[in-house]
Specification:
45% helix, 14% strand, globular
Length: 256
Amino acid sequence: MKENIDMKRIPQHIAIIMDGNGRWANERGKERSFGHQAGVESVRRITSECVRLGVKFLTLYTFSTENWNRPADEISALMGLVLSSLEDEIFMKNNVQFRVIGDMDRLPKNVQQKLWETMEHTAQNDAMVMIVALSYSSRWEITNAVREIVWDSCGKMVNQGYDVDELMKSITEDTVSEHLNTYFMPDPDLLIRTGGELRISNYLLWQIAYSELYFCDTYWPDFNEEELHKAILSYQSRQRRFGKTEAQVEKEEVKK
C-alpha cells in the first residue's frame, strides 16, 4: 500500500486521537492499563514511520483534562506509563524533538520534571516534532488564551494609551493563535481518530478548522504502519479547498 503514497503530498502535520486502548484490553480479558501499555508500542511504530515518510509534526492526544475523572488507579498507571515511555530512545534514534501541550501544573511533580528533561534533551533534534497533548482540552486552551489576551490588552490600555476601539481591531485570528499552546506549530493537515468513535472530544478545536478528518474502527494498539498509510492515502484522495471553489483550486494547481 505504501507504494501508492505520493511522497510529494505527505501531510506536514498529523494529529491523532489514540482511542480504543481500554476496549482492546477488555476484549482480551485484561486490565485497561494493559491496553495503554500496548498503545505505547503503537506510538513507537507510528513515530518512526512518520519520520520515514517526512511528516514534520505529529501530535498525540494522550490524556485529556476530562480524563482526570477516571479511577485513581488508572490515572496512576497512566502517569507511570508516561514516565516509562519517556525513557525510550526513540526520540534520539529518529532525531525527533519532543514537546508537550496542556495544563502541566496538574501533573505529578516527577512527571513534570521528566517531561522538561526530555524536552531539553531533544531540543536540537530536527527530523520531526512529536507533541504530546497531556492534561489537555481545547476549551481549557482557548479559555486560557482569552485570559492572556485580556491581560495583554489591559497592559496596552494602561501603558500605551490604547483605546477600546484600537484594541478590538488589534485582536485578530492570529492574535488568538499566538496565545494558544500550539503557537509553535502549523495547524494539522490530517486528524486521525482510531477506535470507531466519530467525535473530536475537545481536541484542537481551533486548529482543525480546515483539517481533513479520518476515522477508523481499528483500536489504537492495532494501529500500525499499514493503517497509517490508509489514512494518508485517504487524505491524498481529497481536494483541500479552504473555502474556494473546485475550479479555483485546480487553476492554482496548474500554475504550480
